[in-house]
């Protein structure tokens, strides 16, 4: 629309004025905000921008490929991908406590990003202009929440790259500071980003790591990724994506129950469907999904994911339940 075109043009001008001929770095998380912020900066200053994507192995099915292929195709962004899956899984080995998982994932993310940023900085310095700016996908509600200050990032999750050492102190570029989430999505569409990326549900920085109740392992991630992909596919097919806020699928890795399939007894794990409706994630109600959609999701998951023999529905509002299980 006309308004979105205006917003894009205005931001592109501002970014150009701010950045000049310096270099910029942007951490892509796979989420909407960093993707749109990065795309705006790319539109403004082209190859002065380097995007860094840390693949921590905790993303959902297809999401890493979306960043590596579709995002690059849509924006032309120069992208450095760091495959850090082993490192994250090693660090998470034996850990079940939710807060410990969050801390470990956050800590590893900063370390990996720091190293990647150093390489980008060194390479840029050798070839000319220094890297001086870091893109942040800060939205208007974040600005208001943090008192409207400028220059310092509001650190909501580890994907807002706080905690970098002083010698990697960047000036922040925050092209989404005046926008609400729905405007960010429309700007993303205007910039030609893939719809699956633009309309993606909120997804926690620690990813599937906090949707496995119990220790995070490669096998469990694989199981959860399949179950989650089926749920997302069926919700999309039913046209429900924009009605619900998000629908975590949670693997109860420490629980087994008896089932029967064909002639055989099974002893598998349950997954929990946690569909919620919400305005801002501060409070939420469980979504009254149509029974047919629930039935299809349940049938498909138990048929297609061998390790799962039971699908249960979470009917708890927030409060008292949080949206995520961890
Ligand atoms: P809860 O579970 O607290 O979730 O009701 C509220 C919203 O925040 C998301 N969430 C997170 N996002 N890092 C994030 O970036 C986190 O550690 C985290 N934990 C929860 C959650 O998906 C929901 O949208």
UniProtKB/TrEMBL annotation:
The UniProt transmembrane annotation reads: none
Question: What are this entry's molecular-function GO terms?
Answer: GMP synthase (glutamine-hydrolyzing) activity
What reaction does this enzyme carry out catalytically? XMP + L-glutamine + ATP + H2O = GMP + L-glutamate + AMP + diphosphate + 2 H(+)
The broad enzyme category this protein falls into is ligase
Binding site residues for ATP: 29-35
Keywords noted in UniProt: ATP-binding, Glutamine amidotransferase, GMP biosynthesis, Ligase, Nucleotide-binding, Purine biosynthesis
Secretion signal span: none
**EC number(s) on record?**
6.3.5.2
* Top-rank lineage group of the source organism: Bacteria
Q: Which residue ranges does the record assign to the GMPS ATP-PPase domain?
A: 2-200
Q: In which pathway does it act?
A: Purine metabolism; GMP biosynthesis; GMP from XMP (L-Gln route): step 1/1
Q: How does it assemble?
A: Homodimer.
Job of this protein: Catalyzes the synthesis of GMP from XMP.
What is the official name of this protein in its record? Answer: GMP synthase [glutamine-hydrolyzing]
What organism is the protein native to? Nocardiopsis endophytica
């Amino acid at each position: 629309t006309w308004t979105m075109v205006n917003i894009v043009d205005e931001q592109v001008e501002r970014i150009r004025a701010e950045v000049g001929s310096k270099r910029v770095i942007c951490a892509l998380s796979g989420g909407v905000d960093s993707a749109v912020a990065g795309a705006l900066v790319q539109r403004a200053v082209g190859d002065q921008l380097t995007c860094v994507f840390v693949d921590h192995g905790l993303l959902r099915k297809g999401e890493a490929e979306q960043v590596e292929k579709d995002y690059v195709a849509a924006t032309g962004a120069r992208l450095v991908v760091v495959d850090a899956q082993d490192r994250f899984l090693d660090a998470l080995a034996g850990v079940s406590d939710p807060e410990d998982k969050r801390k470990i994932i956050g800590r590893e993310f900063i370390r990996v990003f720091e190293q990647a940023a150093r390489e980008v900085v060194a390479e840029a310095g050798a070839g000319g202009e220094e890297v001086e700016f870091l893109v942040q996908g800060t939205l208007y509600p974040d600005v208001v929440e943090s008192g409207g200050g400028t220059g310092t990032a509001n650190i909501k999750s580890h994907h807002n790259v706080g905690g970098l050492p002083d010698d990697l102190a960047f000036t922040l570029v925050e092209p989404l500071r005046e926008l609400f989430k729905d405007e960010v999505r429309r700007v993303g569409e205007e910039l030609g980003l893939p719809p699956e990326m633009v309309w993606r549900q909120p997804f926690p920085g620690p990813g599937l790591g906090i949707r496995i109740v119990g220790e995070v392992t490669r096998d469990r991630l694989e199981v959860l990724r399949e179950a989650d992909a089926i749920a997302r596919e069926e919700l999309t097919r039913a046209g429900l994506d924009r009605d619900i806020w998000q629908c975590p699928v949670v693997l109860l890795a420490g629980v087994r129950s008896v089932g029967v399939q064909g002639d055989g007894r099974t002893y598998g794990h349950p997954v929990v469907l946690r569909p919620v409706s919400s305005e801002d994630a501060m409070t939420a109600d469980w979504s009254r999904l149509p029974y047919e959609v629930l039935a299809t999701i349940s049938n498909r998951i138990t048929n297609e994911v061998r390790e799962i023999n039971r699908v249960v529905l979470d009917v708890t509002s927030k409060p008292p339940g949080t949206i995520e299980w961890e």
